[in-house]
Amino acid sequence: MAEDMDKLYSERLKRYITANRNEKPDRVPIRPFAAEFTSKYAGFTSQEVTHDFEKAFEAVRKCAKDFSWDATVVNMIYVWSGLVDHFGQKYYKIPGIELDPNVGFQYFEPADEEGAFMKEDEYDELIDSPTEFLTNVWMPRISNNIVAPGQPNTYRNNMAWLKGGLSLMAYGGAIGGANEKLKSECGTVSCISGPIKAPFDILADKLRGFRQVSLDVYRQPDKVQKACEALMPYLYMNAKVASDPSKQVPVSVWLHRGTMFSKDMYERFFWPTLKEIIIKLWKEDGIQTIWYAEGNWDKWLKYTAQLPEKSIIYHSDKGDIFEVHKQVGEKFAISGGIPNDLLAFGTPQEVREYCKKVIQTVGKDGGYLMDASAIIQSDAKIENMRAMTEATLEYGIY
Amino acid sequence: MENIRPKAGEVIPWEIHEKEYEKILGDKELLKQQWQNIETIAFRFIWSILTDF
Questions:
Q1: Chains A, B: CB contacts under 8 A, how many?
Q2: How large is the ipTM?
Q3: Where in the sequence is the domain holding B35, given as residue range(s)?
Q4: Out of A134, A149, A197, whose CB is closest to B46?
Q5: What 3-state class would DSSP assign to A143?
Q6: Structural domain tally of chain A?
């Protein structure tokens, strides 16, 4: 790596870590979570970046260079559809196959009990042995190729397991190489390593489906609670084994369904097991979590505030970032809060003014990272992304 | 059907696999270490399909 790029990377890594720890760096770091915006900017179709991860990495590098990003996700179009094609998941619609090549991939959630990937009477089986349930019951239902134990084996089943495993290894290895190129060619930090999902979100997103779990919390609440408790150690371990061994880069939790339920249900089903995962990662492993609060999580701020100081970076989406700062800004760093509709429909001057306001209030004492509210899609205007960078470089210096 | 009940981080625990050898004449720890290395990767495959894909 060239000496000047090495120096740039070191400065940015220090800036990123310092802000994540809710301290004051030399400047507000620019840390966008950008998906299809990168392909638009680099001149690729959505199909190209979804199905060819090297093109996705290249698009991110082009943006990181041109917009001076201090840290970013090496590929925010996280579902590589090549793996999906080999393993055979049924729940994705892929650009270039069932969708227009310029549309982002879509997740199709089962809408009724018949389509649910886990049936209403299968909670005990999940609770008894989560990994076996996923392998023996869930995967044969979500894949076009996998057959359940006891069913006649097929060539396609064998090949799906083989090619699914090889695909993940190929993708994982390529991500390692892409992280190095992001560092050596752009001086940019790969900003996350390792995923967390809340146990309740796993039930709602991937196992039962939202409509089905909404009935389960009334009809069989004890089983829902026990399922969340059973999933917890596995989801913790899944994040831990994928986390950054140097503990410099946080894991991220993508928060989904917790805001759609009552206080009593949040307290019983959602919060306790997610809280335990985050606390274990921080206290036992020294790993921070990006609390990516998709939607508006302001009503649960008093719960989030119970987490240990510095254990999370609170990412504000549709919530009021100024209120978030008031309530939890002394304990945690905050990121995001620049509205995606402003980036899509506003003017560069409006973007500059909004970024300035956020920097001078939320970021006035450090502990703020510049980013849009939600993952940046192809609707963001290039000139507005440029304005976000320019405003940070102008107003974000301490 | 088998009911292995693997803990977090494993898919077929060493304690089960160890009993499947008729005898071990050499270094048992070497066998265990290599077994567990791939156990972690296999665990990650199953759970990453759930959480990432």
A1: 76
A2: 0.96
A3: 14-51
A4: A134
A5: strand
A6: 1
